[in-house]
Every structure is written in C-alpha cells, then in structure tokens.
C-alpha cells in the first residue's frame, strides 16, 4: 500500500473536527462573478492656488461628480529646487509630505464627515506598513535621503586652516543641492480604505462635497545646520542664535549676506527665499508665497446601470472609522488627561514630545527626551487608563505600549515614543474585531508619568479611533451618532 493511501485510511475520532463532512476543497478553485464597473483617476483642482508661506494657508477643492463613487484621494504637490552652500546645509524635514499638512477635512455641505492630521498619517504608517510598503511609500512622498539628508550623497574632504573637515555642499553652485520633484501622498479618509466604503456620489445629489487642506508654515518644514552647535536646527532658532546683522564694507563671504550689497543694510541670516536661487545670486528677504502646483488625484468608479440605480434610490448605512485628536502641554512629572470621546472606540494611540523640539529643531518625529534621538531615552515612565475613577488597567512601563501592544496587534513596532493600547483583535482591519463603547462610560482618563526631574516640559497628543455610522438616504448623507 502506498504511503499516501495509508494516510488517507488512518482516520481517528478527532478527524471529525477537521475533515469529516467537509465544506471546502483545496483542489477546486471557487470564484464569484462581480458586477461590471470601471475606474478612472481624474485631477481635481483647488478653488485658489495652493502655496507655502510663513503663515500657513487653507485651500479647498470641490469634488466634481465625475462618476458614481469616489474612492482613493492623493494630494499631489511639487517642492521647488533648493540651492544651499555648505554653511547652511539646507534639508527638508523627515516625512515632509505628511507634516506639510496640518489637517485635511471632508465636508458634505457644512457637515464634517472626516478629518485627518498629517501627524496621524505618519504615526499610522509606523504601525501599519510593512518594510517593503514603507520603502515604496517613502519614495512616493519624498521621505528619502535626497530631500531630508542630502549631505550624505555628496560629502567630500577639504583642508581648512590645516584642519581636515568635511564639506557637504559645493560653494557657488548653479545647480540645485536638492532637485525639486512632484510627490503624491495618499489621504486615508474612511471611504478610501475599502471599495465597499467608497463615497456614493450618485446618492448625494443634493449636497456639495469639499475637501479642505490646512498647510503648515514653510518655516516648520526645513532645517539648517548650526556649526557652532554641530546640530540641525529650525530657521527660527538659527535667527535667534545668529541675530540680524548689518553688512560691512569689503565683506567677501557670500553666505554672510542675504542678497543685497547695500552697506549698513539690516539683513536676516536665514529665510526660505535665500535657498530658492543659486548660491551667490541676489534675492529678497520679503516672504513670498511658494507655488507648489498642488491638486488632488482622485480615483472615481463607474457602475453599470442596475447597480447605479440601486445605490441612488436606496438608503445605505456605512460603518466607518474616524479619528479624534486631543492635545495638551506644559507637562512635568505626571498628568491626567480627560478623554472626551464617545461611540465604540477600538484603539488609543499617543505620543509625547519635549516642548522645545518643534520650536528649536523642527524635528517632528522625535518623541524621545534626546535631541539626537538617542535610543532608550523615552519620555514616558508609566501609563494607565482610568474609567469612572477605577483603573481600566494597571500602570505599565513604556515598553509595553511601544513594543508589546504593536507586536501583538499591528504589522510592525513603531519608532520609539509611539504608544498604543488596542481594544480590537485586528485594529488595522476595517471589519470590527473588538471595541469599548465610550458613550457608556461617564469619565475616561489617561494617566501617565514622565521623566522626573527634568529640565523640560512635555506636550502630549492623543489619537482615538472610534466607529460611527454614515447614512445616505433621499439624496443626502450625514452621521447617525454625535461625534
């Protein structure tokens, strides 16, 4: 008897739970026919020209009814060529595409149906993207060495006053030190996460759909090198450390001036304008808006007549996931934050920052107590959640929230300082797999302790992921439950 046949007849009592009365076969492919549809990516333009400037800006795009459903949305923009000498070593911040966006909002008429923060997109990608996906995402959004660490590409050794040093940017170059390029960043609104959640434009005949972006100040988006400290710092901090000076006669160092040769004229040492022209060229210190040629690349879905009619005429309930953001500051030693949340909540994610990390360094992704992001320097000491005055779980150290929870419930463990507590078995999936109903708990608090004693105060940002229901009926749509 052949060995394989022997295995087939070797059946015991426990096989009734595995192979007796089978419900499927591995050796017959089963598929289902689907409704007919097609997709097309169509550019949607903003009502006014999106620009970067020192103040930050808000721009709105009205979505045209190109097709029956709206699925993916990409925010596309172009950064300009940058010209920098070795003195300043200009570089864009890491994850520039996410942090350029303070937030983006979808409204149906005046009702907000979703809001996403650029910071949240970065944190979520830390948890949910595989290493291969992360590599592709970084290329898509410009989070590469060419933009946030260009000196590693063209450093060379020079002798200065009998000392060997490294120069990272050639002097007097006419070609850019950072080549401008177009980027695409996917915006993860709830209707982009699954084709079954695509926004039914055909059923929203009586309402306008607007997508609004609030962009940060350009001053928040780049760093320059301070040789006196050996660190990259924000342009604001550079100006604080190297105050406005006046030009002196016979000044030959082109990097000590800002484009004007008038003797005694007051100048500013660093501004974005000086990096938009070749080194040595004249420029103005007056802040001018930078055209980023931005638009939305939207994926529309066309349905056949029968399905289009069904969606347009019937009512629909969509179980959706939204994000709620809470921010607080001035934290020393301990803090208890009231989480003013409602509805079934699947996960809570939070970060802590030193209060000087953004103002002095523009280091948006640094959630440690170290300027240079030294590992094993977490700000958090312990944390716990409190419901109606009772501990939902006991005090736990930062490693539990930074490593154990993400290891168990997410695709990967994030960078140091991203803290997670999940109420769901599979929090990355759209399908519900666990939550707690925050509407039934009167008082929800997050308590944590930080490094003490410390020379700094800390800021905290808490994101909660919760469910709601989006209902479409009679040509209009809206949320069923209060946010």
UniProtKB/TrEMBL annotation:
- Domain Major capsid protein N-terminal stretches: 25-228
Q: Which InterPro entries match?
A: Capsid_N, MCP_C, MCP_C_sf, VP_dsDNA_II
Q: Quote the Pfam families the UniProt record gives.
A: Capsid_N, Capsid_NCLDV
Q: Which is an annotated GO molecular function term of this record?
A: structural molecule activity
Q: Where is the signal peptide?
A: none
Show where the Major capsid protein C-terminal domain sits. 307-478
- Name of the featured protein: Major capsid protein N-terminal domain-containing protein
């Amino acid at each position: 008897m052949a060995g394989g046949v022997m295995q087939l007849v070797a059946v015991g009592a426990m096989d009734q739970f595995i192979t007796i009365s089978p419900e499927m076969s591995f050796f017959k492919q089963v598929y289902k026919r689907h409704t007919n549809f097609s997709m097309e990516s169509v550019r949607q333009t903003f009502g006014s020209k999106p620009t970067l400037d020192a103040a930050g800006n808000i721009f709105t795009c009205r979505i045209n009814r190109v097709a029956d459903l709206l699925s993916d949305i990409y925010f596309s923009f172009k950064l300009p060529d940058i010209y920098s000498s070795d003195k300043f070593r200009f570089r864009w911040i890491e994850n520039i595409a996410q942090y350029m966006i303070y937030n983006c909002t979808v409204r149906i008429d005046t009702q907000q149906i979703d809001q996403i923060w650029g910071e949240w997109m970065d944190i979520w990608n830390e948890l949910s993207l595989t290493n291969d996906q992360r590599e592709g995402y970084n290329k898509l959004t410009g989070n590469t060495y060419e933009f946030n660490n260009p000196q590693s590409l063209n450093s060379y050794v020079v002798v200065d006053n009998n000392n060997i040093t490294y120069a990272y940017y050639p002097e007097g170059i006419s070609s850019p030190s950072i080549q401008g390029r177009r980027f695409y960043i996917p915006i993860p609104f709830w209707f982009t996460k699954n084709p079954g959640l695509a926004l039914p434009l055909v059923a929203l005949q009586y309402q306008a759909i607007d997508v609004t972006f609030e962009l940060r100040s350009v001053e928040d988006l780049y760093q320059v090198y301070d040789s006196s400290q050996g660190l990259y710092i924000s342009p604001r901090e550079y100006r604080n450390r190297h105050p406005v000076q006046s030009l002196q006669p016979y000044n030959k160092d082109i990097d000590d001036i800002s484009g004007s040769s008038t003797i005694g004229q007051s100048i500013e040492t660093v501004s974005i304008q000086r990096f938009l022209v070749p080194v040595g060229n004249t420029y103005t210190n007056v802040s001018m808006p930078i055209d980023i040629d931005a638009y939305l690349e939207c994926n529309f879905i066309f349905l056949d007549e029968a399905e289009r009619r069904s969606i347009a005429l019937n009512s629909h309930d969509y179980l959706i996931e939204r994000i709620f953001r809470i921010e607080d500051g001035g934290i020393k030693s301990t803090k208890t934050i009231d989480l003013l949340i409602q509805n079934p909540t699947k996960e809570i994610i939070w970060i802590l920052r030193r209060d000087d990390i953004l103002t002095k360094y523009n280091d948006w992704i640094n959630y440690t107590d170290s300027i240079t992001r030294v590992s094993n320097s977490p700000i958090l000491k312990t944390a716990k959640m409190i419901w109606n005055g009772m501990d939902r779980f006991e005090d736990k150290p930062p490693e539990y929230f930074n490593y154990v929870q993400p290891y168990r419930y997410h695709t990967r463990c994030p960078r140091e300082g991203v803290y997670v507590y999940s109420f769901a078995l599979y929090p990355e999936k759209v399908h519900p797999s666990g939550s707690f109903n925050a509407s039934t708990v009167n008082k929800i608090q997050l308590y944590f302790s930080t490094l003490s004693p410390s020379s700094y105060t800390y800021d905290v940002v808490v994101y909660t992921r919760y469910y709601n229901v989006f209902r479409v009926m009679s040509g209009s749509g809206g949320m069923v439950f209060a946010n």
